[in-house]
Amino acid sequence: MTYQPDKIDSMLRDAGIRVTSQRRTVIAALVQSHDHPTAEDVHARAKTVDRSVSFATVYRALATLVDAAIVQRISVDDGPSRFEMAPKTEHDHLVDVDNGEVLELASEELAALRSRLAAELGYEILSHHSVLRVRKRQKL
């Protein structure tokens, strides 16, 4: 998704959230991210657009957007939470325990396996979020 103010406004309205310039700025910062930024990263990026945006405003906006399922929070052990726009396709995350890098792991095979296992137990998956903690293998 590219930063389109009309789309962002519609997204907020559809979720029953009041449209504010600060929320627009936070979403724009996430939409334009190619990584999984922390709240501090989002704040720094938002400040380049609107110098008046405070960290508290960004933090509250992120919490509101997570509650509305517009944004997804990725919790990484003791490290700071990271954020991304709610994914359109199901995927998991790999977190490198040595450097904190967060990578997306999209696999139709894994999604099908999860669904099959849940169905065998009599359930359907409504949502999921998996974080696999990883470390690069040492070369021999």
Would you kindly provide a written description of the structure presented here, covering whatever features stand out?
With 140 residues, the chain is α+β, with helices and mostly antiparallel strands. Helices cover 40% and strands 15% of the residues. The protein has five helices and five strands, in the order ααααββββαβ. Strands 4-3-5 form a three-stranded mixed beta sheet, with no helix packed on it. A two-stranded antiparallel sheet has the order 1-2. The longest helix is centred in the middle third of the chain and has 13 residues, at 55-67. The termini are far apart.
Radius of gyration, in Å, reads 17 Å
Residue runs with pLDDT of under 50 for 5 or more positions: none
Order of helices and strands: HHHHEEEEHE
Oligomeric assembly: single chain
| Spatial strand sequence of the major β-sheet | 4-3-5
The main sheet comes to:
3 strands, mixed
β-strand number? 5
Q: How far apart, in Å, are the first and last alpha carbons?
A: 42 Å
**Mean residue pLDDT:** 87
The backbone outline, from C-alpha atoms, is globular
- Give me the secondary-structure category: alpha+beta
Number of helices: 5
Helical proportion, percent range = 40-55%
| Residue fraction in strands | 15-25%
List keywords for this structure.
single chain; alpha+beta; two-stranded antiparallel ribbon; 5 strands; 40% helix
How would you summarize this macromolecular structure in one to three sentences?
With 140 residues, the chain is of the alpha+beta class. It is built from 5 helices and 5 strands, in the order H-H-H-H-E-E-E-E-H-E.
